[in-house]
Amino acid sequence: MAKAVSIQIDGIEVQAEEGQNLVDAIRGAGVFIPSLCYYEHIQPPLGTCRVCTVLVNGKPTASCTATVKPGMKVVTQTKELEDVRKGMVEMLFAEGNHFCPACEKSGDCDLQGLGYRLGVTATRFPHLFVNRLIDYRPERMVIDHNRCIRCRRCVEEVHTDAGKAVFSFVNRGKDTEVAIDYKAETELTEAQALQAMHLCPVGAILVRGKSLARPVGERKYDQPGQGWEKEEGAIEVPAPKPGAPKKVVATTSLAGCFGCHMSLLDIDEELLDVVELVDFNKSPITDVKAFEGRCDVGIIEGGCCNSENVEVLRAFREHCDILIGVGECAIWGGLPAMRNFIPIEECLLEAYGRTTELEDSKVVIPKHEDLPELLDRVYGCQEIVRMDYFIPGCPPDARHIWKVLKHALFGQPYALTHEEFKYD
Amino acid sequence: MQPATDLPDRRTLLNDLWAIQLEKRHISDQGIKTLAARYQISEVEIEGVVSFYHFFHRQPTGQYTIYVNNSVTAVHSGMGAVISAFEEATGARIGQTDPTGTFGLYETSCIGLCDLEPACLINFQPFTHLTPQKVKALVWQLRRGVPVEQLANPIPQHLRYQLPPDRAVLLRPFVPGETLKPLLQLDPEEVLSTLEASGLRGMGGAFFPVGKKWRLCREQPGNEKYILCNADEGEPGTFKDRMLLQYLPGLVIEGMIHAAYATGAAEGWIYLRAEYRWLLPELEAAVAAYYDRGWLGAQIPAKTPFRFDIHIQLGAGAYVCGEETAMMNSLEGLRGEPRVRTYFPVERGYRQKPTVVNNVETFAAAARVLEVGAERFAALGTPQMKGTRLLSIAGDCERPGIYEIEWGTRLAEVLDWAGAKSTLAVQISGPSGQCIDPNYGDSCFDWDDLRCGGAVTIFNTQRDLLQILRNFSNFFAEESCGVCTPCRAGNFIFTRKLDKLAKGLGRADDYVEIQNWSNIMRQTSRCGLGRAATHALLTAMEHFPGYFSRYFTPNGVAGAQPFDLEAAVSDYRETVNKTLGTTKTN
Fold this sequence. Notes:
heterodimer, A: alpha/beta, Alpha-Beta Plaits, Rossmann fold, 5-stranded mixed sheet, 5-stranded parallel sheet, 13 helices, 17 strands, B: alpha/beta, Glutaredoxin, 16 strands
């Protein structure tokens, strides 16, 4: 039994075991500290993700790389540290290509779970949109490099019975990734392969036929206790003030699927309250095509994939006091941004140049002065105009949209339940 | 992870890879298979090592492999035209070989010839002051079969400023064995106290007191200890270690012998960067000469005779291997990733044993301290920085080369000696250092001011700061080891941010973001590379507000972000025009 020593965490004296990993000591003291790469029995600790950064005796340190020493002073909760740690998580989202709605691991993913828990609605960094491989060559596994966060757990932990490494880092710098050894992979037992999949904190290592074993809704981060508790909250609708002018709302769907508009309509009978409180101006709901005046709030679904999207978005910015981006596509491009890895020539030829459905064998890429022109990639709204709020989700929960809208319109404070914020 | 002692001994892996690379001009699938079998590890692990070092290639690199330096002084002295000339003369496009496989043409990070730019390595032989005309002639001669070694340019010593004899420390006449004489009178303990009294600090950039480091190593239990000489001088703009290794290798070796005597280590390594491969024969000969004289090997004469052996390990192209723990991993045949700092190298370093790591200049200075005495050394410099240091001066000046200055010397004086005219900015300590305005204030080389790691790179008013900073940013994005998030992703993100500024799309918001993002990288990065990567950008923004105001224009009215719609639709238009009238290819 290791010696119990006294350390300070955020000014409070606590007991911890000398030599114990600091992450464990902080958690043992009941303080939340996020982590992604940390895996208890890997020694020395990986120290790759840096999400658990704290101050140790005043020095920024990834807490998983520190051990308890008597009298050490640890600071975990300052505004700056919280921002720095959140920044790390945002950086991983910006670096990889994380299309959560299309991911087998959604709900079981530590990165996604941490995103919810830290309240990441949009990443502050530009998405890098690097074309990454989905490796179908391994016999039993699929390795999706789009999702890998290079935590190194698999590199250190997954070995064949003969002791050979199955994964290794390859390349360097921005091109660093994890590669799999095809031969060693065939030597893994079924159980070892599954263990590798579960070891992966994201959805980068998948075992064929096994990746959806646990239904969505019953997954790790679907359960209360994983950083959230179940709560029920009724939506309160403010009573319209007699004589007060109605607030004006405009909405649009740019490069989106209208799913977010559907979600907006999902507030059901409360829609009746909404129309008491607001007038809709330009919106597919009203079919008003052009702005008829100033609006209090503009709701944007979808990102910008063509010149018209850009013009419409700019018009919204011009006419609306507050702009709210609703859904992943508005925030950073979302599913339409899956084309961002492919040169536009390739996209257009695939659509118009390689099909023989038309009798005419000419390649005709639609172009007309009335047709919008495609952009080189799909852009998130904040790359075109300043956005005031984002509501993440695919689509966001109706109650979430409604709460944010109410807040924007009437300045009402609101709190979101985990289920409203979560969107898988 | 298993303890290091259980791992197969991979120390020879880098040499094995070098043998294959040099013979076959690339590392083939078969080569990987063979080595995986030899070391009994997975092929992917070999692949991991190969792909970490940029002088190991998986594709053939031609009978003549040409590496053109792309550091900023090279760009400024005409690298672009030189590359075009090479492309034209060899038929190879940059990053590829020509169709016949005769020439391979690649860009590479700084090759330590910044005083002689534009420069390149051909089959690891140096070629300097290149011009398109010279390139043409060179390729023609190579095609005629003239050996590369015959064509290579001699590298001058380029000593531009030497202190008067009573103040010079490093650059003074050297007689082999002279600095070893005091060992006949001194105990190891006395060597340590001499160094401590001298106030000598490490010259690699962290400036840790040398005597203290050696003492910490000596105090560690156990007999197996190592001395590592960090000759991986990779910071773009630095080349003073090159000069020492070429012209004063004995001094460096003697410094290592002192370290061995003082700490009790019996084995030492010089980790030589592959860019200096052309120095290898001379360096090997220098080491051999010390064996011949009995100053290396068993029974080295001293008050208490001792044993010490020196080996040389060649790197394979990775800036980050200048970080001491990365270097130790590289010596062990691993990817050169910095280790988690659980222990200091003096506690557990190379092969998990107590290890002293110092760079070339530090060992040379330590030997001189023993020669001239602590008192004389300590009388030089400033209260916090004793003695002298070598500067590698390059860029826009009349006399690029090596300068030995006393700590406390003013920057203005140095620029004057170098013949710098119309200077806009000076980059101190390379891309990881500060970008400062020399006309502002009176900076001097000292602890609290310019704590210079050795490089002074001068830019005149013709140069564009943003272009310089983008060069640095690309360098870090390539040279990050890639292990930790902030350095791997952060440096990449910064290249995009600077692209945005260069396109004229920057706003005041970007200024704030650069500061916020830099702070995140500084607080979270695992080693100095990520922590220092945006230092030049931040200091430049601070020193040149007037210049940057054009890139950080006030935020747009009504929340419009700058967005170049014309540029964004140009690919579409081009595709439409290109495909007009073409037929479908199913």
